[in-house]
Amino acid sequence: MLSRAGRFALVGFAATISACASLAYAGGEDDETYSQAENGQHNGRHDAEDRGRRSQGVQVGVRPYYLVQGMDPGKLKDKLLSCQDGPFYRTQFSIGHRGAGLEIPEHTKESYDAAARMGAGIVECDVTFTKDGALVCRHDECDLHTTTNIVNTPLNAACTVPWSGANSAPKCCTSDITLSQFKSLRGKMDASVPAATTAAGYLGGTASWRTDLYTGRGTVMTLDESIELNQKNGVKHTPELKAGNPDRVHAIFGSREALAQKMIDTFKAHGVSPKDVWAQSFIKEDVLYWVQHEPRFGRQAVYLDSIDPTANPPIPRLSLADLQQLHQQGVQVFAPPMFALLAVDSNAEIVPSQYAKDIKAAGFDIITWTFERSDLRQGASKAGFYYLFDPMGQAVKKDSDMYEALDVLAKKVGILGIFSDWPATVTYYANCMGLK
Question: Which end of the chain has fewer surrounding CB within 10 Å, N or C?
Fold first, then answer.
């Protein structure tokens, strides 16, 4: 007979297979596990609360268990193992980054549904625009050639730079086409093979640690559709207004401010409470516009930090004085990449960075990005941008060690939430630690 843990692993496996199709609940056998042992704040209401959480149908699948089982022995591993029977529920600490892009094409209905199913309490639509002024969900105005099938359709001819053969460097923008044309496209994993001699071949290139298993459907989304889907799925919204081509922004909307206003107006038209929206931008003027002109939405508008030591030239961190000024201007939520919030001390332990301390000292709430967006199978030294805090791989030596970094972000940095390409990994941690 299988052990209790073994039985639950099988349930988790079934949940992974059906993540986008099934509404079945895949919780553990003991409804009391989380509510009594892990959430000391529960009182006599816990039975009703647990019933409500189970009705969400959250499924975390096998990946969290795989990662936890691979951790080094210690208190954190013991704690996470103690939660393996759930139940699991939706949490705002877990934010679906473009949906669930580790395995399902980003900014598609299928990806958004999967993120909600994995317990993300908030799901992101990166907001850009079509030729006829419709707001749509794409990470960049001009990424269609790597995130959709456009170069292998007649719409290739409409691209700013069409695909025309091996190494032709296509550039296909949402603003090249109309809304109806955009809706005819199919989302795919963000990848390409520049040297390919056919358009179909160009659409390949998915990294080995991701997958094309879930690319049979890739329903692209408008902002309106993403709002409606989030409401149906019971999750909240974090739209990021992308920079876009300034000339096209002005030609279509008249001004940057008009575009920023249109994004907020879209949420108003759907009757969404400002408390359920975290509007984001890397452009400070966008955030200040919302703070000044849409203060109810501006209260939790998110300023995304552009810090990037790998850029040419490098983009430095903000000084404490700059942070204080930004907060005085009314910005309440600051969002740097996760590497900027962490450091490794002389004992090879992960600790909060000085930057994290300065951000907190300036009075900000912190959201960070992006979990599960790196290949950690060989540790931080080979994992790139998001693990720059540990360039020698002293603390993060394998993929399971990502939970050590998450624990420091949650407990010592005190983040409000974290974007993840596979929200189930974060949901598992947040549920185990009693984070709402």
Answer: N
Q: Which residues of the chain have pLDDT under 70?
A: 1-55
Cis status of the peptide bond prior to 370, with omega within 30 of 0: yes
| pLDDT at position 56 | 75
In a domain, 8, yes or no: yes
Please indicate, yes or no, if residue 405 is contained in any of the structural domains: no
Judge whether 388 and 379 are in contact, CB under 8 Å: no
Does residue 430 belong to any structural domain of this protein? no
Q: Which residues pair with 419 in a beta bridge?
A: 95
The boundaries of the domain holding residue 60 are: 4-89
Please tell me the pTM assigned to this model: 0.88
Residue 325 Rama label (left phi>0; alpha psi -120 to 50; beta): alpha
In tens, the pLDDT along 44-89 reads 344 444 444 545 789 999 999 999 999 999 999 999 999 999 999 9
Q: Report the pLDDT value the prediction gives residue 337, as an integer from 0 to 100.
A: 98
Give the count of domains, the chain. Answer: 1
The count of other CB atoms within 10 Å of the CB of residue 31 is 18
Give the pLDDT confidence score for residue 37 in this predicted structure: 34
* Mean pLDDT taken over the chain: 90
- In terms of C-beta distances under 8 Å and separation of at least 24 residues, what long-range contacts does 30-33 make, across chains too? 30/85, 31/87, 33/82, 33/83, 33/85, 33/86, 33/87
Q: How far apart are CA 149 and CA 172, in angstroms?
A: 11
User: What is the per-residue pLDDT for 207?
Assistant: 96
Distance in angstroms (rounded) separating the CA atoms of residues 250 and 245: 9
The answer to whether position 164 is within a domain reads no
